[in-house]
Specification:
Length: 346
């Protein structure tokens, strides 16, 4: 999964990225931006790997990218191009001021800031759709693309992001080629001062996030950056002293999963025990294709057991003898924590 860290100048997104990169397995930085890859912690995978000590555990990983922005220009072409390559867009909103970073003219208003960013994203999609419609009008084309774009434009004109619009399967397929950025799942990140961590500041933002189904993470990026420089034991102690339940890494990973509505399932292969992310509501057939295209193409059946049932049994042999390991067809809806073994033939 790829998550873009984006926001207006001064919101603290680069500070947040440095906090993430300090916790990441790999990080590569350019002149003003970078990418870090973080292994998603999952205690279930660790327990499963302990049952198969000869196999290597492979976690899901998430890549976070610091998307560079310029003062006074929110969406230049190069920024727009980067955003289109993301799967989730984490919008960092400013809720802090200090001696080095005084409040901007007009004061702090993360709600106004979010609405301005969302409006810019929506306007960008509107201009792309309108330009395409103008070209199709000259060509006298009237097909599914024409009707889908007109439907999109009708909502964009009302500043409704396309992620909030219901499209048919065929409409979604046609529109996917445009990579409209207002269709991207969002993650709100409110960057507050140290003294506001335990205070419910900007409650209106909580209401917007709740109404629109957008995960909201409240943090202090400056403190998180300091924490990222400590050793793991020191980090645990510091988080406890600050009254912070989870590190920024864990909260943003969870937020990114929630934004995509992802779950995890597991496989036990010849040499590895592996976690996979997949959309909630996905079928066993889609999960098989996620593992390998051959499995999806030649799918026969899936052997399925919930990881908690497996832990109670302790082995696949016992799980099978107790009837906990069951066979499911291609329409089976995969559940969070399922262990799958795919039977296939190509």
């Amino acid at each position: 999964m790829k998550v873009g860290i984006f926001g207006a100048a001064g919101a603290g997104k680069s500070t947040l990225f440095r906090a993430l990169a300090g916790a990441g397995e790999t990080a590569s930085k350019g002149h003003s931006a970078g990418i870090c890859t973080i292994r998603v912690p999952d205690g279930r995978l660790d327990r499963l790997a302990a049952c198969f000590p000869q196999k290597k555990p492979v976690h899901v990983s998430i890549s976070f990218e610091d998307i560079d922005t310029k003062e006074g220009e929110l969406l230049p072409p190069e920024t727009l191009a980067k955003i289109k390559g993301e799967e989730v867009l984490g919008i960092v909103l400013r809720g802090f001021s200090d001696d080095f970073n005084p409040a901007p003219p007009g004061g702090l208003d993360p709600v106004r800031e979010f609405r301005a960013i969302e409006s810019e994203l929506t306007l960008s999609d509107y201009l792309i759709a309108q330009k395409r419609i103008e070209k199709m009008t000259k060509e006298a084309r009237r097909d599914i693309e024409w009707t889908s774009l007109h439907k999109a434009i009708a909502f964009l004109e009302r500043e409704t992001p396309l992620r909030r619009v219901s499209f048919s399967g065929e409409e979604a397929r046609v529109l996917s080629g445009f990579r409209f950025i207002s269709r991207l799942p969002l993650l709100m990140v409110l960057n507050v001062g140290e003294g506001d961590l335990s205070v419910g500041t900007y409650p209106e933002l909580d209401g917007i996030a709740r109404d629109r189904g957008i995960p909201l993470v409240r943090l202090c990026a400056r403190i998180e950056e300091e924490i990222s420089r400590l050793s793991p034991p020191e980090q645990v102690e510091f988080l406890k002293e600050m009254g912070i339940a989870q590190s920024v890494r864990d909260r943003l990973v969870r937020g990114a999963f929630d934004a995509q509505d992802f779950i995890c399932f597991f496989t036990v292969g010849d040499d590895e025990v592996r976690a996979w992310n997949i959309q909630r509501g996905a079928t066993a057939l889609l999960a098989a294709g996620r593992i390998h295209s051959d499995m999806g193409r030649g799918f026969i059946r899936a052997e399925v057991i919930g990881c908690e049932d497996f832990f109670l049994c302790g082995s696949m042999v016992k799980a099978k003898s107790e009837g906990k390991l069951r066979l499911e067809g291609k329409e089976y809806i995969v559940k969070d924590g399922d262990i799958l073994q795919i039977r296939f033939n190509v």
